[in-house]
Design a protein that fits this description.
Layout lengths: L4 H10 L5 H8 L3 H8 L7 H6 L9 H7 L9 H15 L5 E12 L14 E6 H7 L6 E7 L12 E5 L8 E7 L2 E10 L2 E5 L8 E4 L5 H4 E11 L3
Parallel strand pairs: 1-3
Antiparallel strand pairs: 1-2, 3-4, 4-9, 5-6, 5-9, 6-7, 7-8
Helix pairs in contact: 2-3
Amino acid sequence: MPWSKEDGARLQELLAEHGQRELATAAGVSVATWQRTIGGDRAPTVEEIAGLRDLLPPDDMWRLILATFEGVMREPWTEFVALMEGAMASERPAPEVVQVPVHDVQVAAGAGKIADRLPPPLYHWSFSREWMEANLRGVGRLVMVEVSGSSQEPELSNGDLVAVDLDQSRLREGLFVVRLDDVLVIKHIQMDGRTVRLVSRNPLYDPVEIDLHEPGIDDRFEVVGRAVWASKML
């Protein structure tokens, strides 16, 4: 099936927002040669179409454009697609991956385990930086710890892994890991003046009230970080 005036007109329409000189330069041909292409006198080559890739619509719209030329290219179609995919893949940056450490520390949701400090990580979970910035409002300083107990059920269960942002340690309302004496717990913080209430989702567990005026409370109570993500056990 030869290249036709209709094919040339379709190509011109798809790239109408670009000038002929810009298109000719991108395709690596003279303006006169490009005019013959859109006039239907000659078919574009693989290299010419590959040169236009940066001018094509985003995502996979380029496939729609390339499909126009199936059967009229001088080169094999499979070679054409391979060239385009290779060119685009080489220019597409690999997603940046953030390694989040998983520590052998249980954060009590009920009866907890005492933890003086974080031990070396057991392993790491990999997250896309782009995903983290879109869903976690940034990368922060994340660690992952295991939930122990049932006080946060059904929101969190025993054995769930929770990502905690250590940079978010300002006292405010929300779901946080806090240190109470030598025990780490994950609780919903509620504020009432200078009184802090540590609340469980499970109604079987009573809230714990902390008076911020109490002498020495700064040594006994500390916000470790905000819980921002959880991997739930099913």
